[in-house]
Amino acid sequence: MTKTAVITGSTSGIGLAIAKAFAKTGANIVLNGFGAPDEIRAVTDDVAGLGSGTVIYHPADMTKPDEIADLMATAAARFGGVDILVNNAGVQHVEKVEDFPVEQWDRIIAINLSSSFHTIRAALPGMKKKGWGRIINIASAHGLVASPFKSAYVAAKHGIMGLTKTVALEVAENGITANSICPGYVLTPLVEKQIPDQARTRGITEAQVVNDVMLKGQPTKKFITVEQVASLALYLASDDAAQITGTHVSMDGGWTAQ
């Protein structure tokens, strides 16, 4: 039976790597994210070429509940349901609390936290009917610990951890698991974009941001790769991981061991 995976924020970075990993297993894939039409076509074709499943793209804006509902309804109509839901969409803004723009707070909470509630809410009835489902929320080391200047992001990621646990308890007898992955710094476009922002905010060079800020807390002194995160998502979606639920798996080079 071909599985169907919906992955939010999957036109680049971690989400795209996860989409590619599931495509290689033969799953149907629903991609979602921003990008120019030609870029999205290229990504869709690229993912489709990796496996036997069907790959479609849905442009839902993760700040808009009605568009998220349409994303989930489209997946259900096209493929008969959603078996694997990966909530990966995320944005960041770096600023001290008193200067943090209210609209940025609202946007980050909407995309990094509330969107996961909306997708999970829509996915669960179908998963319960099948008696099988996997919900994988991409949280962050910032779901466990904080860093300065990231109030909205840290609050949202802590919220994702709580949402994950609650959902897991509610569906524990339905063959559905819900878990969070907590990566440390992964080299993605989102992180690369933060480097000059952090340099400006902190008044240091970009090289200092990488070594003294980003990788300072990661004892291995290495970025996590998107492929490493994708391999963990594959494992959590497998039958071998059926008894892993309501928890998180850290992949942070030792960051939260300190």
TrEMBL record:
Gene Ontology annotations of biological process type: monocarboxylic acid metabolic process
InterPro entries the record matches: 3-OHbutyrate_DH, NAD(P)-bd_dom_sf, Sc_DH/Rdtase_CS, SDR, SDR_fam
Stored Pfam families: adh_short
Organism superkingdom: Bacteria
The family this protein is said to belong to: Belongs to the short-chain dehydrogenases/reductases (SDR) family.
PANTHER family given in the database record: 3-OXOACYL-(ACYL-CARRIER-PROTEIN) REDUCTASE, 3-OXOACYL-[ACYL-CARRIER-PROTEIN] REDUCTASE FABG
Record NCBIfam families: PHB_DH, PRK12429.1
Protein name according to UniProt: 3-hydroxybutyrate dehydrogenase
Biological source species: Sinorhizobium terangae
Lineage, uppermost ranks: Bacteria, Pseudomonadati, Pseudomonadota, Alphaproteobacteria, Hyphomicrobiales
